[in-house]
Amino acid sequence: MPLTxxxxxxxxxxxxxxxxxxxxxxYEDGLRLFASQxxxxxxxxxxxxxxxxxxHYAYYVINRxxxxxxxxxNSCKFCAFSRTQxxxxxxxxxxxxxxxxxxxxxxxxxxxxxxxxxxxxxxxxDYYLSMIQSLHDCxxxxxxxxxxxxxxVHFAEMKGTTTAEILRLLKSAGLGSLPGGGAExxxxxxxxxxxxxxxxxxxxLNTMREAHNLGLRSNATLLYGHIEDDxxxxxxxxQLRELQDETNGxxxxxxxxxxxxxxxxxxxxxxxxxxxxKMLAISRLMLDNFDHIKAxxxxxxxxxxxxxxxxxxxxxxxxxxxxxxxxxxxxxxPESLTVNQIRSLIEETGHEPVERDTIYNHVIHTI
Length: 367
Ligand code: V47
Ligand code: SF4
Fold this sequence. Notes:
By secondary structure, the protein is an alpha/beta fold. Helices cover 43% and strands 13% of the residues. The strands form 3 sheets. It has a 4-stranded parallel sheet with strand order 5-6-7-8. Strands 9-1-10 form a 3-stranded parallel sheet, with helices on one face. α2 packs across α10 (230-247) and α6 (149-159) crosses α9. Residues 78-80, 148, 179-182, 184, 219, 221, 223, 254, 256, 258-259, 263, 296, 299, 317, 325-326, 329 line the site of ligand V47.
């Protein structure tokens, strides 16, 4: 039943029926959802799935982001974060410095570290292994979610070994899971245009397959709002869905809203609210085998992240603390939120805030 009317309405009643019957949506269904102006119906349908999977819960995690270096051999057109080694504001954190940053947040109850960086042209594998081993030894209760599939491939190339071997070594040093970055858009023609030096979609997917087969779970992302179209978005979602059917290794999917400022694409506009909500809700509908859809409030804005909890989203990420990638590209959100702020913005939507760890266990703090 449509909740709004307009001259460009599409009748979504057959999709509604499929959702009620738990039938898988097709590529064509996905395209129709993107073409539809029925944003409230799309949100309503996505929320049926959200509530089926996650009831009235809205998850958050007490975490910290650490970017160990902004030095990167690639120059992706959408990136405002990377620097060359010669740049005045290039940095590479020592392992002591990383440990120091982490120590500060343990007392605040953090359960997760999200660690990513640029593809440094000179650093040896030992640095990454020592980082993980040392953090694991010093803070054994903290989950280390570190290194995108793109970084894993880079480490393997630097060392002259396979990605599977790198993943095995990192896992035995204490790596807990992989974040979902670096996926961008799998479509080859868009990747060739935006990030020709970056690994292909197939390599990203295969690295995740290897991680999942080794028992390392991961997230997945899609960068939208640049030069991609609806077909590219749906194809990307379907490729993720196919791999998830095979491995069941993905925990959450996170659509990332492109921020153009200070990038080579700064002539493009910021994404608008309807696209943001459609991206989240349609992802919820298409990715029927993903348990969680995350609204990354840092990129989306706090208010829209709040609204998205009624558009299929069940997770709004975490406290974050010190976000550099999106803020280099002009994000106006704060760089962190307190637990009280997160809980109160969730409560205002009528959902129940649930602190989770990285792998979605509910966290109960004992005093
Ligand atoms: O890999 C780069 C993207 C990603 C821009 O797994 C940009 O839990 C927008 O992956 N505008 C990093 N996006 C962020 C990421 C992430 C964030 C939160 C949680 C998780 C998780 C993963 O951000 C990069 C790239 O795809 N990115 N530049 C930009 N200008
Ligand atoms: Fe380097 Fe990642 Fe930025 Fe691309 S998106 S330039 S790989 S830091």
